[in-house]
Write a structure and sequence with these properties.
By secondary structure, this protein is of the alpha+beta class. The chain has a single domain, classed as OB fold (Dihydrolipoamide Acetyltransferase, E2P), CATH 2.40.50. The chain has 2 helices and 5 strands; from the N terminus they run H-E-H-E-E-E-E. A 5-stranded mixed barrel has the order 1-2-3-5-4. A hairpin with a 4-residue loop joins strand 2 and strand 3. The N and C termini lie far apart (66 Å).
Length: 114
Amino acid sequence: MFKRFATAVAVLLFVVGLVVAGQGKEGEWTGWITDTHCGAEGANAKHAGCAKKCVEGMGAKYALYTPSNKKVYTLEPQDRASGHAGHYVKVKGTVDGETIKVASIEMIPEPKGN
């Protein structure tokens, strides 16, 4: 009986570990709202119009370029980012691979020297 119980507990712990691992990591990131077509090249205020065109007409998605680690993250849901193309922002949410599931987006001042 103890062997069955121990096996059941081990299986349960394994399943819980898989569920927790698949949930992503909460955090906050700062950077530019760009699009997946232009990525880092579109990480500036002048790129807002181009980002909108790429998303609306070329199948790109809104994304966050983070200068600190030079990564481009796709943002979901897209409607949270649509009004921020070309803005320097702080995004709070959960990262899962190369996608951030957005909880909030807030415009912030661009750091000096950029």
